[in-house]
Amino acid sequence: MIGKLTGRLDYKALDHVLIDVRGVGYIVYLSDRTMATLPPVGEGVSLYTDMVVREDLMQLFGFTSLVEKEWHRLLTSVQGVGAKVSLAILGTLGPDGVSRAIALGDWASVKAAKGVGPKTAQRIVLDLKDKAPGVMAMGGTVTEAMEGPDLDVIEAADPAPKPTKKTAPKKPSGAAAASAGALSALGNLGYGPSDAAAAVAEAAGDNPDANEAELIRAALRLLAPKG
């Protein structure tokens, strides 16, 4: 199983790219949002990947963060949701947006993705709502994360240059790290994972630039007894 690729970006198409790794070209399919974060052709690129292998098909799907990759894995586990629909959802909402929508039960936001009907959107929220806290606790981009033992990492012989800051996703790890820290703090205070995830998701939606402390305060206000 190929879990990560690091090499040179050879070309970009509408929905996929070709990454040259030691002279071997890997075609990797991406969401629109992930495609927009890539560096120019000819520069170094690094992506987490998920491989789909069937009798008549072998495809790689690429992601800039473990959160995005995990949501893809979970989305495609839902009945009626294939890889293209998953990428459409991630491309429309982004991994943080998917986390918020599912934690809050906001199936209308999920339905906004191309190819997703109301029944499918409701099924996604219903099936994955309990998974949101665990995914929201993850964070970091591919260039920041430690290589896990479960990843088969393929890298170029000559280390490729890291993507420049201007081509990196906007605040990819800051928001994720703040949410993860807030979730952990609320858990330590005794709040249930689902309640904490929903509160953090709502707080993050109201203030996307909030740091961990601000998210905790806002989430606590949302969790406080009404009356």
CATH architecture of the largest domain: Beta Barrel
Identify the CATH class of the largest domain: Mainly Beta
* Range of strand content: 15-25%
Q: Any idea of the CATH topology of the largest domain? A: OB fold (Dihydrolipoamide Acetyltransferase, E2P)
Q: Could you tell me the mean pLDDT?
A: 82
Q: Give the total of beta strands.
A: 6
Shape: globular
Annotation field: number of helices: 9
**Estimated helix fraction:** 40-55%
Q: Low-confidence stretches at least 5 residues in length (pLDDT < 50)? A: 140-172
CATH homologous superfamily placement of the largest domain:
Nucleic acid-binding proteins
Whole-number total of structural domains: 3
Report how far the terminal alpha carbons are from each other. 53 Å
Protein name: Holliday junction branch migration complex subunit RuvA
Region (Domain III): 176-227
Subcellular location: Cytoplasm
GO molecular function: ATP binding; four-way junction DNA binding; four-way junction helicase activity; hydrolase activity
What is the topological layout?
Layout: E1 4-12, E2 16-21, E3 24-29, H1 32-36, E4 44-54, E5 57-63, H2 66-75, H3 83-103, H4 107-111, H5 118-128, H6 132-136, E6 153-155, H7 172-188, H8 193-206, H9 212-223
